[in-house]
Amino acid sequence: MKQRLTNPLFIAAVVGLAYQILEKYGVAPDFGTWQIGVDIVSYALIGTGVYSTFKAEQKSEDTK
User: Fold this and answer.
1) Please, which pLDDT band fits residue 53 given cuts at 50, 70 and 90?
2) Domains: count for the chain
3) Residue 61 within a domain
């Protein structure tokens, strides 16, 4: 299931379906605003995914 959720085509299909549903009920923002929102969320998810691959460096305290 996790592989399906991270598939870019599946994400695009879900986003397209969500926009069509919002448009049907008349509450969808204009497409440019929608696209900016989707881009921001996508970049945030990509950024957290990349950030999580780095190992945390342990800081050692100097005791003198």
Assistant:
1) confident
2) 1
3) no
Q: What is the CA radius of gyration of the chain?
A: 19
Amino acid at 54: F
**64 falls within a domain:** no
DSSP structure string for 1-29? -HHHHT-HHHHHHHHHHHHHHHHHTT-PP
Closest alpha carbon to 12 in 24, 2, 20, 22 = 20
pTM for the predicted model, two decimal places: 0.57
pLDDT in tens, 3-17: 776 777 888 898 899
On whether residue 27 sits in a domain, the answer given is yes
The SS3 assignment for 34 reads helix
Domain that holds residue 13: 2-51
Average pLDDT over residues 11-27: 91
